[in-house]
Specification:
single chain, alpha/beta, Rossmann fold, Arc Repressor Mutant, subunit A, 2 domains, about 55% helix, elongated
């Protein structure tokens, strides 16, 4: 796995590089601004980019803008965004730019090494990994939606775990139910959200995005 890190905090940037190299992962470049990050993506053609939301020069949305541009240039690039806080608008922008190979973690999650590495590998393997705290805050800010109101409490739990990027087996383990029960809940979620089978749309991703975009 070839990785580029874009983080303007030198301590965190070098700490991440050391951690990943200790796991025998190939950190091909570390950068501290959007311009050199995009140049590194073009030069090294990485598999994964780890990007801070707020970067120079204004420390507002440069990281997200650069991540979206990197995905435009290299659609197969997996992107794991790090943020000190839940950035609602930025998270929605990134998630709606494409439904797979994306992650959004709070920086405090990096200190939980096993969780961080699990999220990194999930994103690199084509999945999504959204910090549970990000999911909780985005959902708490959502405005009422008639279709969402149809979901049972258990179905909302399942959908929230789907938003974190968990597969059916992991959801079953987290909720202490069978995979068959999870599959039944997901089918019910699709039905209640009026997501019919469509070759052009991943209903799992569509359900998560519908939930997160209702803000």
């Amino acid at each position: 796995m070839r990785i580029v890190i874009a983080e303007d905090d030198a301590l965190l940037r070098e700490g991440l590089a050391m951690l990943l190299r200790a796991e025998d992962l190939d950190v091909v470049a570390t950068t501290d601004n959007p311009t050199t990050f995009l140049a590194a993506v073009d030069e090294h053609q990485p598999d994964v980019a780890i990007v801070d939301v707020r970067m120079p020069p204004t420390h507002t949305d440069e990281g997200i803008v650069a991540a979206v541009e990197a995905r435009r240039r290299r659609p197969e690039l997996a992107v794991l965004v790090l943020s000190a806080y839940v950035e609602q608008a930025f998270a929605t922008d990134l998630l709606t730019s494409g439904g797979s190979r994306l992650g959004y973690l709070l920086k405090e999650r990096v200190g939980r090494v096993e969780e961080f590495l699990t999220a990194l590998h999930r994103v690199a393997n084509g999945g999504t990994a959204i910090d549970p705290d990000v999911v909780a805050q985005l959902l708490s800010r959502s405005r009422p939606d008639a279709r969402l109101e149809r979901l049972s409490a258990r179905e909302r739990e399942v959908l929230a775990l789907m938003a974190e990027g968990l597969g059916n087996t992991a959801i079953a383990e987290r909720l202490f139910v069978t995979e068959g029960a999870v599959h039944k809940h997901i089918r019910s979620i699709f039905a209640k959200l009026e997501l019919a089978p469509d070759d052009r749309t991943d209903r799992r991703v569509a359900a998560v995005l519908h939930y997160l975009e209702a803000s």
